[in-house]
Amino acid sequence: xxxxxxxxxxxxxxxxxxxxxxxxxxxxxxxxxxxxxxxxxxxxxxxxxxxxxxxxxxxxxxxxxxxxxxxxxxxxxxxxxxxxxxxxxxxxxxxxxxxxxxxxxxxxxxxxxxxxxxxxxxxxxxxxxxxxxxxxxxxxxxxxxxxxxxxxxxxxxxxxxxxxxxxxxxxxxxxxxxxxxxxxxxxxxxxxxxxxxxxxxxxxxxxxxxxxxxxxxxxxxxxxxxxxxxxxxxxxxxxxxxxxxxxxxxxxxxxxxxxxxxxxxxxxxxxxxxxxxxxxxxxxxxxxxxxxxxxxxxxxxxxx
Length: 304
Description:
By secondary structure, the protein is an alpha+beta fold. It contains 13 helices and 14 strands. It has helices at residues 2-13, 28-37, 51-56, 92-97, 99-104, 107-113, 118-123, 126-132, 138-146, 163-166, 242-246, 255-268, 279-301; strands at residues 21-24, 42-45, 64-67, 77-80, 83-87, 149-154, 157-162, 167-169, 172-173, 180-187, 193-200, 210-218, 224-232, 239-240. It starts with a helix and ends with a helix. The model is unreliable at 1-7 (pLDDT under 50).
């Protein structure tokens, strides 16, 4: 009985974060100042769906947590200078329900809809998910397919970085400890464009076994002018299927070329075997879902 109580106590303590100090930022400069003062010891809190579980499990134990939820200026979805701009505190539910995005970039509301459950979508943020850099996070592949640009603010001012350069490794990005991801910039798509995000999951709201984002543009002869393909959960970061994209540029998107691209994407994937499936199974699912995604994106581009 005593041994059981000791083990039970250890289990309970493992679900309680270590002591930390909460700091509340009311502006972007506030947040940057806090991060700079406590560089390496502070973490940003937005939705908290990534940070809080890690803290409860004591996988991360920041001495300071910088709450940015009072920075109202970071919550927006708007169109400006040929781009869609999404603020760093924009919730998944705002992406999911945005009429502007449904009209101009419908792949984003579709993606937001398959993230977690309503509780997660009501609090979680796009920038938080991207900064967390979980390779199973759904937005990463979409950012690669859309050739997104991220606006980052730190003590040295503002800088921009392409999505293709942002993800470094598992849970690691180009963000410095004293920087904040304040905006996602996405180029508007030309006419005859279509996109889709498809996700294989064990149950609704689960992390992806495999996810595929495809965004393409066709010319008047239905030849592929541009295409972006991003892959979820098959590498240490979200992956851009470069070889698959190259196989489609200048080609008609018929079954043969779509199959070639899907085969190449499967070889570009680098999954690991785990509880969600073997490496071989995941590669095959990449092949299947790239075919489906390209076929659906083509149909969307043609308005079917």
